[in-house]
Write a structure and sequence with these properties.
This protein is mostly helical. 75% of the residues lie in helices and 0% in strands.
């Protein structure tokens, strides 16, 4: 199979499917957004709490693929060329994700106790952390995160478009040279983002593993999403002529590795804090291992690690398109459960509970984001036209 004999543009059949999926996603998103808007009028506190953890999931869907894109430019490999265009489309949604941050800015006093001057004055620990935990600096840091993510996404998309139009020589070395610093920025920004947006919900608590845990979580969320998407695309041209079981096997190995890394970081954090038994650290876990939350923790141990780990060990399963996509979708569901377990107990210490806005908020955010992502995906050919190793990619798994 040669690249010259294939048309990598979105086929009419796939374009129709993408528009159908986009319409459905947008409909679900609008319903979720309107329902959550009603919830904002009824219970502002619950709205912002539900919005926060759902928003963290959408950030992972947009920013995680950017990290995979930069990693592919740094390392190379057929696995990255296959998912490059979906990663680029996800990176182009970052301005929308930045706009979605506005409700958190508006509701900051409903979420973070350090945003209340009276509470800061009454708490010595909060006064000690005030130079970092204050509203102006919080907003400045968020602006830096979004600006950096947008810049790297914009630059790599721009270079990719030039490669399509002018050939690889026009951008030779540019994408790999910017991706190294980009990965460093991604790691630092995700670390500080996790501290700002999640860890500071309980400002007395701290963990040196929290940033690494969120980096692994973003990688896992985005890879699961990309696998599910690639299987959907496989049923229409041009990807039906390109994807092989070996491509999916490569992505499945990443998924298995990230499931193990997430479990390792999660258990390491728990073991260190529990063994240390310090009064400023232990309450965070006590709140999540009592009053019904312990069952959510058990579900994460089984559904987020034990089950997918056991299944993904199978080579045959990682080469089965439908089974691998099913596991990827299941992991995405467990990622939502994990984010809820990280965020919600800080507001529901007395008992486990669910609000109807815990369903409408993710429906609204994910639905709107997905509709915009599919719109961006439709804009460009699904494989880079002038990629030097495209022939190798097409023969991957056909030997």
């Amino acid at each position: 199979m040669t690249a010259q004999g294939l048309d990598f543009r979105v086929s009419p059949e796939l374009r129709a499917d993408l528009r159908k999926w986009r319409t459905r996603a947008l409909g679900i998103g609008i319903f979720g957004a309107l329902s959550s808007g009603v919830g904002l009028l009824i219970s502002p506190f619950q709205f912002y709490r539900s919005y926060l953890w759902a928003y963290l999931f959408v950030v992972a869907l947009a920013v995680g693929p950017l990290a995979w894109l930069m990693l592919q430019y740094v390392t190379g490999g057929a696995w990255g060329v296959i998912i490059r265009r979906p990663c680029e489309a996800a990176a182009r949604t970052i301005p929308l994700v930045a706009l979605m941050f506005v409700p958190i800015v508006i509701g900051i006093r409903n979420l973070y106790e350090w945003s209340h001057p009276a509470r800061v004055l009454a708490d010595e620990a909060l006064r000690h952390k005030q130079p970092y935990l204050n509203v102006p600096f919080f907003l400045v840091r968020a602006a830096i995160y979004f600006a950096g993510w947008w810049f790297f996404g914009w630059y790599l998309n721009r270079c990719s478009a030039r490669e399509d139009a002018e050939g690889h020589a026009a951008v030779h070395g540019k994408m790999s040279s910017i991706s190294g610093p980009g990965l460093v920025f991604w790691g630092l920004s995700v670390t500080f983002m996790s501290i700002d947006w999640v860890l500071s919900l309980h400002p007395e608590w701290f963990s040196t593993m929290f940033g690494l845990l969120f980096m692994a979580s973003q990688g896992l969320t985005s890879m699961a999403f990309l696998i599910a998407l690639m299987v959907l695309l496989y049923y229409r041209r041009p990807m039906s002529l390109v994807l092989t079981p070996r491509h999916l096997h490569d992505l499945g190995k990443f998924l298995l590795a990230l499931v193990m890394v997430w479990a390792y970081f999660s258990f390491s954090q728990f073991l260190i804090i529990w063994a240390g038994n310090l009064p400023e650290e232990i309450p965070w876990y006590i709140a999540r291992l009592s009053h019904g939350w312990q069952y959510v923790a058990l579900a994460l141990v089984i559904g987020h690690f034990a089950l997918p780990f056991s299944l993904l060990l199978s080579r045959d399963l990682k080469r089965n398109f439908k089974l691998l996509a099913s596991i990827a979708v299941f992991i995405l569901c467990m990622r939502l459960v994990d984010l809820y377990w990280l965020v919600a107990p800080d507001f529901r210490k007395e008992s486990f509970g669910l609000s109807w806005m815990d369903f409408t908020a993710p429906m609204g955010l994910i639905g709107i984001w997905l509709a915009y992502f599919l719109y961006q995906l439709e804009k460009r050919p699904l494989l880079p036209l002038n990629q030097p190793h495209l022939e190798e990619v097409l023969e991957h798994g056909r030997e």
